[in-house]
Amino acid sequence: MFDMKIENGLIYDGNGGEPYRAEIGIRDGLIAEIGADLADAAQVIDATGHIVTPGFIDVHTHYDGQVSWDQKFEPSVYHGVTTIVMGNCGVGFAPLHKGEEDRLISLMEGVEEIPGTALAEGIKFDWESFPDYMDAIDTPHTIDFAVHMVHDPLRVYVMRDRAYCDQIATPEDIAEMARLTREALKAGAVGFSTGRSDLHRTSKGEWTPSSEATAAELAGIASSLKGLDHGVLQAVNDFDLERNDPKAFDREFDILEKYVAASGGKPLAISLMQRDFAPTQWRQIMSRAEQAKEKGLDFRFQVAPRGIGVTLGLDCTFHPFIGFPSYKKISHLSLAERVKIMREPSFKQQILGEKTETLAGDGTPIPPLADKLLQIMDMVSAKMFILGDNPDYEQTPDKSIYQMAIRDGVTPLEKIYDILLEEDGNQYIYFPIYNYTDLSYDAVKEMMDHPQSMMGLSDGGAHVGTVCDASFPTYLLSHWCRDRVRGPKIEMEEAVKKLTSELADYIGFHDRGRLEVGKRADINIIDSAALKLKAPRMVRDLPAGGKRLMQRAEGYMATIVAGEAVISDDQLTGALPGRLVRMGQNG
Question: Which domains does the chain carry?
Fold first, then answer.
């Protein structure tokens, strides 16, 4: 007798082949049998009219702090994700010397826009070494989670103050960082991540410790992966775009090649996006990565299935009026109170005649980019769209804020003002900065189709006041497989493969990612015809009263983790079968 049986569903097994109909018998958290007329089960799920897939894997999240206080892993759990990988981009919270917690909080707050007050209140910091950290977070959660050893905390731990002073790591520093990385990998870390972006700064505006690491440092650390049966590398790099150095791109890519070569054949995943401020760089990255592969170096791209940008709203971290003097005077009020005042014609006239200042109402510095956006609002508003209750991330230019303003005979800034007051201040404007440069998905489709690409970049748990991209899996299946009208679609079997086996194979998750006998019973049962994204909404559920965007979905009949349903009809069940995945031990 099985613990659970799924019958009458159309199975997409994760291998990319044609779907088929069969029953799935589950016992002791594993897939025990797949076939027809299976034995009885304690629980039978009738999946008639639904598709059945492996649980989805998200290899690029930032729940490193949230794991300490949130057992649910929202919003990823609402989108069919059953395993996440944390510790990307070189930021995290271990190893750690007591008394230096604020340094790591500042890094995470600045790089990943997670409120420092929430991190300070929500994390216990009862660890020093990376294995200690793994032990501390290895508690029940809705879904499984794995973690990279991260470069920034490692560098701070070994080099202390020297990590922030642009000092080159000594051979002794590098040897110690390599030793600690090896220790973390042997304890079950999935790999090592680093950040080399000039756009990443601490909350105090400082460079991140890993951003200026030498090729020798990166290669030395990567060498610690040699001889292990598991281990991957991850890096984010803007290739020194801000420095206007024509040789910077190749110099940075050469460093990455040495980084990979030193690892003894381990794969590297780098972020790949079409950037507004460097619209052709993604092709340079692809070209160099193809050349590296010809040399025997395993380069991969993490790509996103939609534009990546910011969500603008009166309750979000940013909107165009946040630095205007009149708005700053009311910024401390509740949303309802702000909306009431902003609807007064005299207030509107006054604020539209003002200029932005350098600080928000709470004293937070306004990003320099904000000033630039206001100066060219007529142009950038051509890429701003209302998301609405049925969010559309691939809208045509005629639906832009700019075109709406022209039709209404007002300026784009005034149109934005009016829109932000809709829905009692809960209306959001979507502004894609990456992957929608030419107002099309042509580049996105080309990136996703590349043989070295894989799904990633959801940033689940990060940029909580402006971005909510943990919904990528739902978007891939609903938009690219079913709803898209502006270009080619993706077959369901290919999309499922991208979300499951391809990512499992990359990380080395041998026990999941496919619906096969003996694999973990991590399974989704989805009403693919009804699958849809809900509009993002701001919730206040972070420690210290912090707020974040939350985006849920409809269409998940069940999400099963190790044989237990954690989602039933789009709602959490309360089950907590998820645990830390320790590579080489239980991964």
Answer: 2-53+520-572 (2.30.40.10), 56-309+446-507 (3.20.20.140), 320-434 (no CATH)
